[in-house]
Amino acid sequence: MATYLVGFLVPLRRFDVLIPPGYEPVPIGERHLTLIYLGHLENPGEAAARLERVTSLSPFRLCFRGLKPFPSPLKPRYLAAVPVEESRELLGAVRRAVEELTGLAPRDRYQAFRPHVSIARTRLKPSLELLKAVEKVTRKSRNVVEELLIHELFLFKAEGGRIEKIASLELKGA
């Protein structure tokens, strides 16, 4: 069953050289940051129309530093780039603004907002060897920084481990 999310395309590349054996890179065109997870929608067209209300947002910069295992260090299915503190705070403010302007809200209010961009994924079961490789990559990546300009907001459809753009809105500011 398809699920939907509001977010940004985030084609980070600097972390690719750190991807260890056993992980495969997430395709550049699918690297995204989820702002609001909407879950299953009966009418995705309505959500797409609501995005048009976000005309006051201006383009903004995000900065990412280092890779972290997701969902946790003991179950590192993904290696994800994480925004620096200032960017996380900015994303929180952007998320609140988008929720307020569109009326779109996260499917699960109790789930913590942990902004990240998945860079690589694995299907391997966690083993001592894999956990050591992840720990090494996490240490090596601490000084890797990538910054980019976000200028477009998307409604994505997620299904079968892939994402597809359903609607987009260019951020132009007021």
- Main sheet characteristics: 5 strands, antiparallel
Output mean pLDDT: 93
| Structural classification | alpha+beta
Rg over CA atoms:
16 Å
**Low confidence ranges:** none
Q: What share of the residues lie within helices?
A: 10-25%
- What percentage of the residues does DSSP assign to strands (E)? 35-45%
Describe this structure in words.
The protein has 174 residues and is α+β, with helices and mostly antiparallel strands. The protein has one domain (3-170): Cyclic Phosphodiesterase, Chain: A, CATH 3.90.1140.10. It has helices at 44-51, 85-102, 128-140; strands at residues 3-9, 24-25, 32-39, 60-72, 75-83, 117-121, 145-150, 152-159, 162-170. Strands 2-6-5-4-7 form a five-stranded antiparallel sheet. A four-stranded antiparallel sheet has the order 3-1-8-9, with helices on one face. A hairpin with a 2-residue loop joins strand 8 and strand 9 (162-170). It is globular and about 50 Å long. It starts with a strand and ends with a strand. The mean pLDDT is 93.
